Amino acid sequence: MTMSSSFAVENEKYDDDGVVKRTGTWLTACAHIVTAVIGSGVLSLAWAVAQLGWIAGTIILFLFSLVALFTSLLLTSCYRYPDPIYGIRNPTYKVMVQNILGGFQYKLCALAQYTNLVGVTIGFTLTGAISMEAIKKSNCFHKYGHDADCTSSSYPYMVIFGVSQIILSQIPNFHKLSWLSIIAAVMSFGYSFIGIGLSIAKIAVEGKIANTGLTGLVIGVDITAREKMWNTFQAIGNIAFAYCFSIVIVEIQDTLKSSPPEIKAMKKSTYTAIAITTFFYAICGLLGYAAFGNNSPGNFLTGFGFYEPYWLVDIGNLFILVHLVGAYQVFAQPIFSAVENWGGKRNPQSKLMTKEYNIRIPLVGTWRMNMFKFIWRTMYVIITTLIAIIFPFFNNVVGLLGALTFFPLTVYFPTEMYLTRAKVAKYSFVWIGIKALSVFCLMVSLVAAVGSVEGIISDLKTYKPLKAI
Hints:
The protein is mainly alpha-helical. It has 15 helices and four strands. The protein has helices at 2-13, 26-37, 45-76, 93-101, 103-144, 155-168, 178-206, 225-242, 246-253, 262-292, 310-346, 351-354, 371-390, 394-421, 429-462, and strands at 80-81, 88-89, 356-361, 365-370. The strands form two sheets. Strands 1-2 form a two-stranded antiparallel sheet.
């Protein structure tokens, strides 16, 4: 009787893989996805549409929404293997690849995933600093006029962003991040609505849409043929990568409780999050293009497509900043977890790895600090912040990393794992369709990579380390 009771208590505390019971719901998973997907890049989609025009811009926006939805659903069906409901859990993306496709593919996946995650966290540091700097500039322009010299250094803001991440990085794991992701998701809605509202106001005040075209910027009038080609490549890549959240989707699914089955809850989260994302992307991209036309700025708020009302621009940039603070953690937590699990397996008896100290924080509660986690996570944030400071054009590098990892992480591995798990017959209709999608997305990755390389080369021509300090 005692043994039965003890077993019941253990079942109440742990899931079937021995991990403390997961408590996530489809709603928290949806918040994680929206936080990961809707970045401040939503405000740059008008620029992308301007390069492509109404026809291609609209088609590509919705096309990659469907690609992201399709490949994400394939990934969710592989969380448990071989059976999608009763199989063994795959708690991380790379473990999923290892269990389904084997060791060599696992190494390629780990390299692509963590390279992308590190690059994105560095990019968030840069973008967060730009939003803080934009708030200062907005107030400067309001006070001294739109032609005033309001240039300033973004480096102090990168340091501020880094300090905030050192604090938040002490959150133990993904399971404790739900509140931060929900706040970040709300912020993304906030600045998206501000961008939409300002675009509508601009169209209403001027009484007409701006100078636009079915094919975007006109060669010989707005842009040269060479610039049109590079910008088109970058625009296609920007839209494709805007939907890319596959690098964290498995880790997000691993936060879900077992009932209802993870696959059912995750599919609901994915449908909802992609629908929300597509709505905001389409509205911001198309309305922004209608408002600014072929002169669409790289970003509504930080690029000062709008100067007034300055307080609303400030609020929009503040929302972007809060969102990026949360998004950084969504992308950094898998890195933290991977290194800590590796360290724990190599030195299971080390007090540095296992010993925890209870530190009471006034008004917050008790923080269970592990020295290795504290040192490692702090050093990671410091290093990524320093890279952002030294290479302020790193966002173009992030674009290249996105181009190189978009195909394997968003398309190749999800489709190959699904074909293996579902045992789809070779050369069947489904097999041919999935392979055709892979080839198409590979071409998109190559085109975007070429565009990013061109952007990096252009930046290097004028690059001076720490020139603004």
